[in-house]
Amino acid sequence: MTFTRGRRILAVLLLSVLLLTTACTPKAPGRFDQVQKESSQQKRGQAVAKNATKGGEFNKFFPSPQAGYQRVYTQEKKGFAEAKLKKAGKDVALLSISDTTSTPSAAAKFSKSTKKIGGYPAVEVGNTQTAILVGKYQVKALSRDASFTASDRAAWLEKFNLAGLARLK
Predict the structure, then answer these.
(1) The whole model's pTM is what?
(2) Same domain, 60 and 94
(3) Are residues 128 and 67 in the same domain?
(4) pLDDT score of 41
(5) Residue 47, domain member (yes or no)
(6) How far apart, in whole angstroms, are the C-alpha atoms of residue 86 and residue 93?
(7) In this predicted structure, what is the pLDDT of residue 134?
(8) Mean pLDDT, residues 147-162
(9) Which stretch is the leader sequence (predicted)?
(10) How far apart are CA 67 and CA 53, in angstroms?
């Protein structure tokens, strides 16, 4: 009888030691831990340049809602502002202004442009996007519905206050 009691005590003791040692063992670093540490400590190469224009400053340059259309601001952050264009409650387009200071490659695509909208170089990106470069700012219209054509995008880009945006520094 004491022999089985001794076994139970020994089993409980060994189980306790096992649990204690595994609970106190440091966790091995995961495969993404080093990358996370490096990226969170990184000071240069950030996504948005320090001198990028605040997104709220762009709102006054967006076109006013036209008959049958509604403009709904959806995103505003440093260097970028975006608004949905709705018609009859349906999203037909996204309109945006972005500061290319943070993304020089965005501005580079306009260097070979032969098309102009509102007097500014324009590019078509696929079948759904039209963009113009106003100084250091990219103004873009993106179709969200098949009824919003390339000519609609060009017309809405001309409705932005492009002269005012060109004066923004």
Answers:
(1) 0.70
(2) yes
(3) yes
(4) 57
(5) no
(6) 7
(7) 95
(8) 95
(9) 1-28
(10) 30
